Amino acid sequence: MTTAAERLQEAGKADSLWVSPGRVNLIGEHTDYNDGFVLPFALPHATAVSGTRIPERHWVVTSEQTGETVTFDLSEKVEGWAAYVAAVVWVLREAGVDVPGAQLRITSDVPFGAGLSSSAALECATMAVLADLAEADLPLRDRPRLAQRAENEYVGAPTGIMDQAASTLCQEGHALFLDCRSLATEQVPFDLAAAGLKILVVDSKAPHAHVDGEYAARRKACEEAAGILGVAALRDIDVAGLPDALAKLDDETMRRRVRHVVTEDQRVLDTVAALRAGDLRAAGPLMTASHESMRDDYEITVPQVDTAVRVALEHGAHGARMTGGGFGGCVLALVDEEDCDAVEAAVREAFAANGFTPPDTFVVTPGPGTSNINK
Known about the structure:
The chain is of the alpha+beta class and about 375 residues long. The chain has helices at about 5-10, 80-95, 120-135, 145-155, 160-170, 215-230, 240-245, 250-275, 285-300, 305-315, 340-355, and strands at about 15-25, 35-55, 60-65, 70, 100-110, 175-180, 185-190, 195-205, 320-325, 330-335, 360-365, 370-375.
């Protein structure tokens, strides 16, 4: 099976060709927009974008997935999948980059709507191509913030910075420990094979979307709670101070949201410590605790992902959790190599017994971030 980059190479010569991966988040969900900590790693699955300069100051974008071609300039708002491309053009111009007109082609191996950050992969690959075509000096460290702004302000999705940072900055064989306030990063070794482990991804096939009221409502609750507690963000409350903080909140739903974020930040720190020590299996119970917190306190899981987590644990997984924004998407299960097939089969059987759409399942290893293929 050809990769996304190979398909674009076969489509013909272009001035620029870059790929950006999707991501899974090992742990640290809904902490990014609270200035907290996250620990994603890049998938082997990637989005490829090729670009060729054209003399006109507009952009012609063709998607292999949809078969559509969209032409736009910035005189009016672009909608649909092409909005993510237009958003990058807009944010680069806002940043002072003289983006040339271009013909762009897009193809992707990242499952859409599965919570694997297909939108950030598209944004980051597009940004790399357009910066290349513009011959702009755009430091790698600045790109995640620009891509986040594109998604927040142009597309209208209130996402944090984790997805764009992971898609841009990850390194093969490592998880990316990211402080979402300072943007300090650490590449934490995550050698699953050496530990005799695998990460099994279960795509629940339950619909997943960020541009909706549920995600925004949780972000708003966190911001309101931070205001009541007199802190810049929930990151500023640690586990030791959590009881006092919760006592100051009258709303029970808001208390649950705060409890998830504060305890999730601590789980990220504990997971990083385990990986630094080479004890990858110790991440398992932390992953499971994260899922329970998302289910009970943040209330963002659905029956499909809860079933996948429960069944994986019953069949020997060291830990399992939903990854992504919630309300669908994927589950990660940390399993011994010899148990992977049994866990996968059990999850498929449970989905069939519950009348769920059959899941997609695949094993992932940490891959590289945004990469230049050729010119």
